[in-house]
Each structure stands twice: as C-alpha cells, then as structure tokens.
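In this supplementary section we document a worked example of the pipeline. Step one takes a protein sequence of length 177 as its only input; no multiple sequence alignment statistics are reported here. Step two produces a three-dimensional model, which step three serialises into structure tokens for compact storage. The input and output of this example are shown verbatim.
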Amino acid sequence: MQAWAVLYRSHFPPMVRHVRFLTGDAGLTEELVQEAFARALVKLASFDGRATLSTWLHGIALNVVRNHWRSQRNTATAHDRLRNMHAAVDAGVAPRLDQAHLSRKKTEALYAVLETLPENLREAFVLRDLQGNTPTEAAAKLGITAGNLSVRASRARERIRRELERLGWLEPRRENA
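The serialised model returned by step three reads:
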C-alpha cells in the first residue's frame, strides 16, 4: 500500500490536468480521477509493461471519462446550451459583458461545441490543442498512430471553428479570391 500511495501522489496531478481538460469541470474531474485510480488499483496485476505506467494510467482515466460521456450524453442539453448562447449573442448581451465573464462564456461555448463532436475527434483535440501534448504523446495515450491523431485533431479544429463561427464567437474566415 505504501508503494501505491507513492504512485498515487506522483501521478495524481497530471491525471487531474488530463481529465480536467477533457471535462471542463473541476468537481467532476476529482470524481473521475478517483474512479480511475480505483480501477487501476483493481487492475494493477494486469499491467504488463507494454506501455509506461503513466500511459497505462492515462488510458484508464480516458476510459473512465469516455464511460462518463456515454452515460451523460444528452443531445437536448447540448442543443439547449447552444441555443442559450446564441440567444445571448443575438440579444446584444455579449458586448456588454466584462472581460472575465466573456472569457468564461467563450470557454463554456467551446466545451458545448466539444460535447457535440464524436469522441475520437474530441479526445484528439483536447490532447493536442488544450493539453499541448506532442503528436507522439497524444497518439500513445489514444493507442493510435501520430498520423491518425493529426487527421483527427485537424478535423476537430475545423468542426469547432465552423460551429463557433455559426454561433458568432468567431469571425467567419474570409475566402481569398
């Protein structure tokens, strides 16, 4: 148990950062990380060393988050959030908001759009663009090739950009003639 305590202390902060970027919710993050460590403790005997312990733990955390997303998937909620944000922009509320509030709303808009993406694109975007992992690191965490990760992250960026443009959070791209 002492060895497990050392492992927990050394891997807890990066796991929290990883899950926090995926969920965008501090309270939920704590709960999911605890669940990931509990699952890892139960499955520790099955760790075969093919990956680093850190990668193995992050894989477990990723699966816990995926399971949470599946259990919480509710497109009506996501659409309601998008409608509310769109209504706020249409009502002219956004220009009057103070900078901190506007920043929080932009973050909420991004996470609402992220909820609409397929899991594989969402995970690639979070690992590359929000967490700043290298393509090799992010690909290893997802168990895919770096090339596949780059394609997924690129597709995610494009979908996010289009949706944020549609919602009025980004200026539409100007086409060169």
